Amino acid sequence: MVFLGTSASAPSVRRGLSAQVVMHDEYRFLIDCGEGTQRQILHSGLGFKRLNRILITHGHLDHILGLAGLISTFSRWETIDELEIYGGRWALERIRELIFGVVLRGAEPPMDLRFYEITPGVIFTGDDFEVTAFPVWHRGPDCYGFLFEEKERRPFLPEKAEALNIPPGPWRRHLVEGKAITLDDGRVIQPDDVLGAARPGTRLVHVGDLGRTDELENVARDADLLVMEATYLHEEAEMAQKFAHMTAYNAASLAARVGVKNLVLTHVSRRYRERDILAEAQAIFPATVVARDFDAFQVRRGELHKIEALDHD
């Protein structure tokens, strides 16, 4: 996961507006597209290759205005065959007005442009993972968070394969895929003969703006990584509640309550010092990081590793 913009509402000198990229194998998902996102994409070194799916948490301008520049650039410079935009009904209405009413103004889109109105449930299925949308409460309708979840895996047990004299190669691959094989000597080997007990896949939960955490407890429980906003410090909890945002205290309390493994805070206000946000959260949930623009993390089962150099291939 790469953080392209980590500021709340307005950019600061060091932080751009909301945008993150989640990558898994050949798949890339841009989550939100605040003003200036295309420059952040270039500055990060990610580029636009395969960046053809955009997930929108909600329709507030600091989360969607960058789509105008992105589409404009695609019209003139970049080559991309198709672009999929996922969002709630209200968000997609605003995005259509922005793209067709402001940017294109009667011109044809530079690519096959597809809009997907999301509702709670699975919105995308890959080879070994799913993306699920879940509703969150914020100002305005149709606000969503996203769960990226790998499917359960059964580890291959090489010692059992050796004991059964199963040679390396396609036979073992087929067993890992859950298929029975017939060896040259006529023996039939079932996947259960060489696979261990199922292990849960990695779970990454991403939340945009939200004003309460009730709805998050089940979906975030035991997540390997929870990414959520910390717009305010708890000393201004009343203001946070008024504008339907979170404090660092709120976010850390949720993380501790539902047993997540790691917490990354983003969407932070420029009115606070980063170290104060971090101190408030870590006092409750030590495994907390405050993301900065261009931070990149690898998420594994129970683990979070900061990446110093990205592999852009």
Outline of the structure:
The protein has 313 residues and is of the alpha/beta class.
Q: What descriptive keywords fit this protein?
A:
single chain; 313 residues; alpha/beta; 2 domains; six-stranded mixed β-sheet
Q: What would you note in describing this structure?
A:
The strands form 4 sheets. This protein has a 7-stranded mixed β-sheet with strand order 7-8-9-12-13-14-15, with helices on one face. A 6-stranded mixed β-sheet has the order 1-2-3-4-5-6. Strands 10-11 form a two-stranded antiparallel ribbon. The model has no long low-confidence stretch (mean pLDDT 93). The protein has helices spanning 37-44, 61-64, 66-76, 89-104, 158-163, 170-176, 217-220, 237-242, 248-258, 274-282, and strands at 2-5, 19-24, 27-31, 53-55, 82-87, 112-117, 121-125, 129-135, 144-150, 181-182, 188-189, 203-207, 225-229, 263-266, 288-290, 297-300, 303-306. The protein has 2 domains: 2-153 and 198-306, Ribonuclease Z/Hydroxyacylglutathione hydrolase-like (Metallo-beta-lactamase, Chain A, 4-Layer Sandwich); 158-193, no CATH class. Helix content is 26%, strand content 25%. Strand 2 (19-24) and strand 3 form a beta hairpin. It contains 10 helices and 17 strands. The radius of gyration is 22 Å and the shape is globular. It is an alpha/beta fold and 313 residues long.
